[in-house]
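--- STAGE predict ---
source: upstream dedup step, 1 unique chain passed
mode: sequence only
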Amino acid sequence: MADIKTIILPIPGLEYDENEEAVTRRIIEQAVEDLGIKIIKSEKMQETIASKAIKRHQFLLMGAKHG
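--- STAGE serialize ---
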């Protein structure tokens, strides 16, 4: 997630333009979709790290003497 890109929205004209609205809408939709994908990847990565930490902790506890 090191690459951060800036998305520049088109400047609206004085009069309504259907094509400009479609372009702006698509840019925003794509940005939201990209954010969603990054959030899912981040959550999966955190789950993996936590899972590995729990397994390591359980492994270390196997050798511990209780009593």
